[in-house]
Design a protein that fits this description.
It contains four helices and nine strands. By secondary structure, the chain is of the alpha+beta class. The chain has two domains: 1-30; 33-211, Superoxide dismutase, copper/zinc binding domain (Immunoglobulin-like). Strands 1, 2, 3, 4, 5, 6, 7, 8 and 9 form a nine-stranded antiparallel beta sheet that branches.
Length: 212
């Protein structure tokens, strides 16, 4: 009788252990493999280039936008390292930066489509509405948190970052364009977000901490 009860307890314990292990395997499968490679974090970046056909006087911006997020629910961190803005203008005008829907950089960045808006809400509540950045000395060096994610079905991997000529009116412009894109003007540079190793993030993050 005691042996039969022990067998039942052992069988129940094995069943629970198997269920837990299956959950672990499922979690591992749902995580990108780079998460395991990089101590539970995901890294991404894009190398921004200017539109070559811009008229005289429009900035030729270039640089990197870098991303880091801890799996599965960490806040997305973003570093902006952008150059090419005018140095002889005081104060330097602010520029809007957004994530756009498609990773297609053709047609002078127009093929990136509109703002990435998976929840079909008004601007500036899109997950990639980074807002406005005022360059200093012709550069934008900024570290911030964002509502976008690198994980799951709403991941921004493969989508585009676009820098605009004007300041974003943050949805306060009183017209349809304001609620769609913030009336931020023409696109002056863009890049596609891709999975990266952590070395570029680590280098720029250390530089950012050293001067702030």
């Amino acid at each position: 009788m005691l042996s039969h009860r022990s067998d039942n307890l052992l069988e129940a314990a094995l069943f629970v252990l198997l269920a837990v292990c299956q959950q672990c395997v499922s979690a591992d499968i749902s995580a990108p493999p780079e998460v395991m490679l990089h101590n539970g974090s995901m890294y991404a970046a894009c190398k921004l280039r200017p539109i070559t056909s811009l008229p005289t006087g429009v900035p030729r911006v270039y640089g990197h936008v870098l991303f880091k997020q801890d799996y599965p629910n960490g806040k997305l961190q973003v570093i902006f390292r952008l150059k090419g803005f005018p140095k002889d203008v005081t104060p330097e005008p602010s520029r809007a930066v957004h994530i756009h829907q498609y990773g297609n950089l053709s047609k002078e960045c127009i093929a990136t489509g509109g703002h990435y808006n998976p929840s079909d809400v008004h601007h500036p509540k899109h997950p990639g509405d980074f807002g406005n950045f005022q360059p200093q000395g012709g550069k934008i060096n900024m570290l911030m948190e964002a509502e976008a994610t690198l994980f799951g079905g709403l991941s921004v991997i493969g989508r585009a970052v676009v820098v605009h000529e004007k300041m974003d009116d943050l949805g306060l412009g009183g017209d349809a364009g304001s609620l769609l894109h913030g009336n931020s003007g023409r696109r002056i540079g863009c890049c596609v977000i891709g999975i990266y190793p952590p070395n570029l993030w680590n280098m720029y993050h250390e530089q950012f901490k050293a001067v702030n």
